[in-house]
Amino acid sequence: MGFSMFSSNSMPIAIDFGSSSIKLLQITGDTAPSIVAAAEVEVPESVRLDPDALLPFYAKALPGVLGQCKFKGKRVVMAVPSTQTFIQHMQMPNADDQSRDGLIKAQLQSQMGCSPDSIVVRSVDVTDVHRDGQARSEIICFAIARDTVMRYVNMLKRCKLNVVGIHTEAMAMVRAFDHLNRRATDHEISTLYVDIGWAGTHVAIGHGKKMVFARHIQIGGRHFDENIARVLRCDTVTARSHRLSLGGKAGKPPSAAVARARDASGAILAVAANAHAHAHAAGEDGSPTATVETADDRRTGDGPVANCREVPEGTPPTTAANVDITEQLDTISDELSMCLRYHQGLFPNRDINRSIFVGGESRQVWLCQHVVKALRLPAQLGDPMSRLARPNKLATPNLDLNEPQPGWAVAYGLCFAPADL
C-alpha cells in the first residue's frame, strides 16, 4: 500500500467512522498543510451498538455537516471501524503475492467460517521467521466482510460522495505520525501506539514508518461506564459523567507553527545504538520489566517529539464514584503486555522506545497514567491536529482546536492515505 499525495485543490475528505462520533477532516496538500474543513458528529448512545441503525444515522447526518462546513469536492477516503475488522497475525510459507493471497483466504475461511470471496483482505509484511525448520513470512492480515465495505460505499454514494480509498484504523493511526519517522535512521525507533476509544482499544507497533504489529482489544470507555452503571444502578450517561469527573486532562496544544518548528528542529527520541544496552529485569512470566531510558534528541537534545506531550506523572485513581475500576484498568494493561511480548518474540533484540497514546478516551490522562505505570515505558499524548494551520474564522462544529484532540489521529492519518480504489 504505497504512499501518495494529492494536489492542494483535490485532497479527499477523510471520514473516520468512530464508535462514538464521526470525524470529517479535509486539509490542503501543501508542505505546511492547513485545515480546509473539519467537523465532528456525535453518535447517539442508543445507536452506537446497533449496526442496523448506524448506517441510516450516517446517511442522515453527513449531508448536512458537509454543506455546513464547506467541504470541497466529493472524493472520500474512509476507515472501516476496528470493531468490524478482523486482525490476525499469521506465519505463511514464502510464496508470490497471488499464491499467498490464496493461502491467507484459505486460513481465514477456517478461522472466520466464511467464504474467501465474501471478505476483503489486506496484508502487511512484518519479518521473516523460521518455524519447524522452514522459512516463513510473518504478516499482519486485515479482513473485512465484503458486504460491510459495500454498505459503507453505497451509503456514501447516497450522500453523493465518491469513495476513492478504504483503509483500516490501525494503518491510519500509524500514518498520522509518519512525519516523526522521515529520516533514514528512524527505522531504528520502535513505537507503541495505543488508541483508546469508547468501544475498544486498537494497538499498533511501528519500526519507523513500518507497522510490525496490530491488534484490537475489546475494552474501552464504555466498559468502564457499564461497570459503574451496574454498581450504582444508574444509566450509562450518568456513569460516564462520574468517570469524566476524575479529571486529569491534557494541557493546551502548541500552535501549528510551534509544532512544525519543533518537528523541523528534530525534537525526536533517539534510539540507543545497541538494544542490549538497555537493562532488563525479568518478571515472573519472563517478560522484561525494566524502564526503557529516553535518549536525548539526536540534534537538539530538546526531548519530546513534536505534536506530542509527556504523560504527566501522578498516581492514577482506581475508583470512580467509589466504584472499583481496577478490573478494566488491569485488563487493558495485561492485554498491552501480551502485545509487547509478542513483539519481543519476533524481534528479541529490539526494545520499545516510546509509546504514544491517542483516541478520545486518552484525554482522561489518569487512564494513560495507569497503563504507563504498568508497562513502564516512556509515554506521550499524541495530538497530530496541532500541526495543522487554521484559517481565520474556520468553523469546526463540535471540535475545539484550542484543546488537545488525540481522538483525531485516524482522521489525520487518512488525509495522507493513498486513493487505492
Question: Could you describe the 3D structure shown?
Answer:
With 421 residues, the protein is of the alpha/beta class. Helix content is 30%, strand content 25%. The protein has helices at residues 45-48, 51-68, 97-112, 146-158, 169-175, 221-232, 236-244, 256-264, 326-346, 365-375, 409-414, and strands spanning 13-17, 21-27, 35-42, 75-80, 86-93, 119-131, 134-145, 162-168, 190-196, 201-207, 210-217, 308-310, 319-320, 323-324, 354-358, 379-382. The strands form 4 sheets. It has a 6-stranded mixed sheet, sandwiched between helices. A 5-stranded mixed sheet has the order 3-2-1-4-8. Strands 5-7-6 form a 3-stranded antiparallel sheet. A hairpin with a 2-residue loop joins strand 13 (319-320) and strand 14. The longest helix has 21 residues, at 326-346. The protein is globular. The N and C termini lie close together (11 Å).
List the helices and strands and how they pair.
Blueprint: E1 13-17, E2 21-27, E3 35-42, H1 45-48, H2 51-68, E4 75-80, E5 86-93, H3 97-112, E6 119-131, E7 134-145, H4 146-158, E8 162-168, H5 169-175, E9 190-196, E10 201-207, E11 210-217, H6 221-232, H7 236-244, H8 256-264, E12 308-310, E13 319-320, E14 323-324, H9 326-346, E15 354-358, H10 365-375, E16 379-382, H11 409-414
Parallel strand pairs: 1-4, 4-8, 9-15, 15-16
Antiparallel strand pairs: 1-2, 2-3, 5-7, 6-7, 9-10, 10-11, 12-16, 13-14
Helix pairs in contact: 2-4, 6-7, 9-10
